Fold:
Amino acid sequence: MINNTTKWEVEDVPNDAFLYVRVHKDKIESKGVSVGLPKPSAFKNTPETGPDLSSDWNKYSTPQLSREHIGKEYRHGKDEFKNPSDFFIVSFKVQDILDLDLNQKIEHSPRQDNFPDELQGSPWNHSHCSIIGDAEERRVRMIDVANWEIKP
Amino acid sequence: MTATIKSVVGLNRTIQIKIGNDFYQIPDELSEIASEIRDSKKILNLKYDWDSEGALSVPQFVWERAVKTLISYSKWIWENKGVILVTPSIDALADGSIDIMWNGTKGRLLLNIRNSPISEAHYYGDTYEGKNKFKGVIKNLNEVQTFFAYWLTEFLQ
Structure:
């Protein structure tokens, strides 16, 4: 299937793929039995973009590239780049997410805003995938299957 | 909350906390929870885009609703069951809501206080790895719901 807003084909994401998700430094547990783990808030998306969680597919990205990509993005509504060192990276195996049996869907959703002219602050991303579904249970259970790739 | 003052009420030491216009007496045994509540006030200093990704600030009424709920359940369980709950984390979310997350040795529970005029909270708990799931919505946060308090008592010590 061709996404009309991009030159990249939307592909099926296999169950043995890995997805990289950014975790803001303030969303890491600092005390108690879960110290060092992402908080449930790490897996809540911003209200502007709906009930899906952005991730990067390991077919086209690495944990390092995923973090570097953050530094090419503008902060929301500003002409100011994000600081990649404010973020850390966890990975999820697609099969592990599906095994949680929470009716979550994973869709490849490559980003090429303003194609064919890439805009500063809104970098293209071939690896972008959406993890769709949002509930308290999802946010808790995702912690169980997350693995640090770039940890604090 | 503007101040935390230790006082003596009868034979029981209490901690007094001001939340909004109300004062709350918290048993000294729950001092760690009181401390977490005090620390959580920094949530109110978060400005729009505090996570660089468009996160909303948390309204005062959401924070007050969250900490009052935490106090109500912590006190009820202490006074009725003699149990001190594990101290939860109080955390801001990008949509302006607040999570209260308890991680106990037997179980865990996430209570999300919505950024909404409607006073309700959604919860999910289990005994880890998705076992013995406990989830739903608390429609009335102004009164302790005993079924919810019993679950906290059983699994979140």
Summary: Chain A has a mean pLDDT of 90. Chain A touches chain B through 31 residues (CB under 8 Å). Chain A is about 15% helix and 20% strand.
